[in-house]
Amino acid sequence: GMAQALGPDTPFTAIAGSEIFSLEMSRTEALTQAFRRSIGVRIKEETEIIEGEVVEIQIDRPATGTGTKVGKLTLKTTEMETIYDLGAKMIEALSKEKVQAGDVITIDKATGKISKLGRSFTRARDYDAMGAQTKFVQCPDGELQKRREVVHTVSLHEIDVINSRTQGFLALFSGDTGEIKPEVREQINAKVAEWREEGKAEVIPGVLFIDEVHMLDIESFSFLNRALESDMAPVLIMATNRGITRYLSTPGRHLGTPKPHLNPPHVHVALRIRGTAHRSPHGLPLDLLDRLLIIATAPYGDKETRQILKIRCEEEDVEMTEDAYAVLTRIGLETSLRYAMQLITAASLVARKRK
Where does the RuvB-like AAA-lid domain lie (predicted)? Predict the structure, then answer.
């Protein structure tokens, strides 16, 4: 929900406190990678493109079938028409995209990438039947060759991985990034700072969400304290269900172990910080706790639980009566919301069978 509210351009990374403990990677490296995944860089660059409607494609194939293919491509806009000579690679790219006369295409001059935008409105009556995916667009106007600003949004971690080794981009897909040298990160930070000064790039601090933060040890907390002081640090959100004890008067229901006469409701209980003998609220060191804004969350009430169950029923395409909603809401409040939601499909199948 939080990631959706922030939008697609804001980096959002969610990890659990226990994820950083690994034999292959140190804890500080895992946290550094999580931090840098949460920092985005919006890079702007101008590219030259050729955009027009395909009038004709002529491909000359050698009679022997072994020589290189050559051809000509005729493109037009509303104001001009030009013929381009084609090499073997461009012919292959056109064949791959299944480009034919009447298509509106763009060609990136730097990379040779061909993108099909759709078919021209003037060719709408060429065929009696067309697929649902066929898109009709206007014939481009103005010059064939244009300059267009392209914006790429990448995270600092992706730049780190690509520059950390030969063919580093393959590690992005496999996930086997390993430990990245600090020198590589320093060079990338310097380059990003240079791009910012030149106006080529913009740094987007994202959000790093750490669940079960009480699982981190004192070394990890010390690292977080220092990392938060960076000028490019993302917004850090920590979540924990330890350190606050609530006593509920409902018969047979207790959250936490302390007895009601020993601890009044909503009391902060000091937990041992992992890796030390010291105790602190929520199991976090006091110097880090002083820098945080604590937001307490309350359990869902009757109305909220009912509304969540209604949304879940709509998603699962299940119709329920008001009595069924009342029973499910009671089950959700007495046990857990997850248990109540898992009963929806099962109850629906049983009801269908009885009919």
Answer: 308-355
